[in-house]
Amino acid sequence: MTAPRIYYLLLALACGGLLAFAIFYLEGTLGLEACPLCILQRIAYIAIIFVAVIACIHDPQGLGLRIYSGLILISALIGAGIAARQVWLQHLPADQVPECGPDLAYMLEVFPLAETLKMVFTGTGECAEVQWNFLTLSIAEWSLVCFAILVIFSLVHIFIGKNWRGSFGLDRPQIP
C-alpha cells in the first residue's frame, strides 16, 4: 500500500469515526438532536469521506494528490466556516440569541434552497444551545478543531505531499 493511499484511508476512517460518534453516541445514546448547522457540518464530513475514499481507490500521484487534497481542503474550509458560525452563536449573550426556528427538513420542504440556506446561516436558538461538553469544549468547538486539523493536513499534503512519496518504504516498486 502506498503512503497516499494510507493517508486517504486514515482520513476517511477518522471522519467516519466522527460521524459515527455523533450519530450513534450523541444522538442514539444521549438522545441529542442535531441542529441545522450540525447537519451541514456532517455533510462537509461526508464530502471529505467521499473524496478520501475515491482518492484511496485511485491512489493518485503528483497532480492527483493535489487535486484530491484541494477538494478535501475546500470541504474542510466550508465545514470550519459552518462550525465557526455555530461557535459564534453559542457565545452570544442570551438576549441576542435568535429565536428557534423550524427544523431543516421542514425548511427544505417549504422554502427554496437559497432561502433555507439563508435561514440556516442566520442561525436559530437551537444552534446556539450547548447540549454537551467534553473538556470544556462544545460539540461545535470540537468540530471546529477537527476541521482546522483537516485544513492543516490538507495544506501540508498539497504543498509537501510530493515529498512523502515512498515514505516508510510503502512506495510502489519500480518496474525496470
Task: Give your account of this protein's structure.
The structure is a single chain. This protein is mainly alpha-helical and about 180 residues long. About 70% of the residues lie in helices and about 0% in strands. The chain contains seven helices and two strands. It has helices at about 5-30, 35-60, 65-90, 105-110, 115-120, 125-130, 140-160, and strands at about 135, 135-140. The model is unreliable at about 165-170 (pLDDT under 50).
Give a quick summary of the entry:
This protein is mainly α and 176 residues long.
Sequence of secondary-structure elements: HHHHHHEEH
> What is the end-to-end distance?
20 Å
Uncertain runs: 164-171
Structural class: mainly alpha
User: Biggest β-sheet, characterized?
Assistant: 2 strands, antiparallel
Helix content: 55-70%
For the largest beta sheet, what order do the strands appear in spatially? 1-2
- % residues in beta strands: under 5%
Silhouette: globular
**Strand runs, count:** 2
